[in-house]
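Query structure, 488 tokens:
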């Protein structure tokens, strides 16, 4: 490394010496330096520039003839914060005599960030005294952003692969973008029932997020609501003036949110999943780099949301009956055992009811299986409408249903009232495509702990009570103890 740095030092030192000797009288050397992309400069021990090529002038925002024989320092040519940083770095080099090689520097100006890599070395006279400084620097912004984006992209994908909770991933996406860019604040909104709900907006004021949470999707609803409506990016450079923000301009002013760029998050098959937005305190459009970062963020968010929806769908299908939406047999025993375990611990009452449609085979034979499916869907909906949130309705298969009643009190009468309601509702006409049909159901119920202490024993007794209901005319509600007596 020392030899490599020595070689670089020699090259810059040689160039600086040549420039000092020729005073740029050699037009060929001047032409060469003014037509290379690297920035080349020389300054004396007082920090005054004796030479800058065209690229260096352009970097600082000046024309080539800006100096015009004047002895200017960096404070005459750059913003104060940038000038102080550069002056401190160069003063350190000339004070210590130690060069700086391939040093990277991040410079933010007017909301835009650029990266530079440069070599700066002291210039010495024949006695070895430091008499100035020479430097060569190049713009590495494009390469730096690509490297940073690749690294950020990989880190976020790793969170998805490892199954991190979706809220954590969405917050990480917003935080990553905010760290990459200066003076920008992000948010992710998720589509829920034709509205946008906050998925991640940890840096925005709570008073603002409470307003946008539940935002409508529409053609004139700020940046996010409109982007979701159009399914295309909406870049509002001035929220105070843009008609899309007329209903939100007051709160935008209150929080200094001057521009807002929103992009729809799209999933598989063109499904709208949400929006990703960036807010700035300045009136401006996003730069090309910012658009690239926005694209990365929306793509990652889309992958994360899509994956979570698929996982939720698979979990739902594994635990629910696809026809009725009720819990299925796969989870029935787990739910039943949990209810009994909690009842033992808290001295609760648990009831299990077995429900079976009367003469369901005739319905399929006379009206077809499509009509039979409609009957099952209607019965499931009517059962759900008659029970409490703490009760669990299950389709065991075919036309067989079960209900687990878990009660904080010994409320047998309340359970019987709900079962009578189910029986009455089940007998109401069900509309078919060109007609209607009326069906009935029979049910049998067993109670924990009086009728048994295990799920298997209780379900067997509820089944037995249900068959008693069938034998005694159908369309009735029966309880095991009433049918067979206690202790049987």
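Result returned for the query:
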């Amino acid at each position: 490394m020392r030899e490599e740095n020595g070689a670089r030092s020699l090259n810059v030192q040689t160039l600086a010496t040549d420039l000092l000797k020729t005073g740029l009288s050699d037009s060929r050397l001047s032409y060469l330096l003014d037509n290379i992309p690297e920035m080349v400069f020389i300054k004396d021990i007082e920090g005054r520039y004796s030479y800058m090529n065209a690229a260096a002038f352009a970097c600082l925002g000046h024309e080539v003839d800006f100096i015009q024989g004047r002895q200017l320092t960096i404070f005459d040519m750059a913003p104060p914060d940038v000038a102080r940083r550069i002056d401190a770095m160069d003063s350190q080099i000339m004070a210590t005599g130690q060069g700086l090689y391939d040093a990277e520097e991040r410079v933010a100006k007017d909301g835009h960030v650029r990266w530079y890599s440069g070599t700066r070395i002291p210039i010495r006279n024949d006695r070895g005294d430091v008499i100035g400084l020479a430097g060569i620097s190049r713009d590495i912004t494009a390469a730096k952003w690509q490297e940073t984006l690749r690294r950020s992209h990989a880190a976020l994908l790793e969170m998805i692969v490892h199954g991190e909770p979706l809220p954590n991933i969405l917050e990480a996406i917003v935080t990553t973008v905010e760290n990459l860019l200066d003076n920008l604040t992000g948010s992710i909104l998720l589509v829920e029932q034709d509205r946008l709900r906050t998925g991640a907006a940890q840096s925005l004021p709570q008073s603002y997020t409470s307003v946008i949470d539940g935002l409508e999707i529409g053609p004139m609803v700020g940046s996010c609501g409109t982007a979701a409506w159009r399914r295309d990016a909406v870049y509002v450079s001035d929220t105070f003036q843009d008609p899309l923000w007329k209903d939100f301009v007051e709160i935008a002013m209150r929080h200094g949110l001057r521009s807002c760029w929103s992009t729809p998050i799209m999933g598989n098959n063109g499904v709208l999943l949400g929006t990703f937005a960036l807010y700035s305190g300045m009136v401006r459009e996003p730069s090309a780099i910012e658009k690239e970062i926005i694209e990365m963020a929306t793509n990652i968010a889309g992958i994360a949301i899509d994956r979570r929806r698929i996982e939720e769908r698979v979990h739902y299908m594994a635990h629910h009956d696809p026809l009725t939406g009720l819990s299925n047999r796969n989870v029935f025993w787990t739910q039943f055992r949990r209810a009994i375990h909690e009842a033992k611990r808290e001295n609760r009452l648990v009831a299990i009811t077995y429900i079976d449609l009367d003469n369901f085979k005739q319905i399929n034979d006379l009206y077809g299986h499509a009509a039979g499916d409609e009957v099952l869907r209607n019965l499931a909906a009517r059962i759900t409408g008659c029970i409490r949130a703490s009760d669990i309705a299950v389709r065991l298969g075919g036309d067989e249903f079960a209900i687990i009643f878990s009660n904080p009190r010994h409320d047998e009468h309340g359970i019987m009232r709900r079962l009578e309601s189910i029986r009455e509702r089940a007998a109401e006409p069900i509309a078919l495509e060109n007609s209607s049909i009326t069906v009935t159901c029979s049910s049998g119920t067993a109670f924990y702990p009086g009728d048994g202490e295990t799920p298997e024993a209780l379900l067997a007794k509820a089944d037995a009570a249900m068959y008693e209901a069938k034998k005694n005319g159908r369309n009735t509600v029966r309880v095991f103890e009433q049918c067979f007596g206690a202790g049987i």
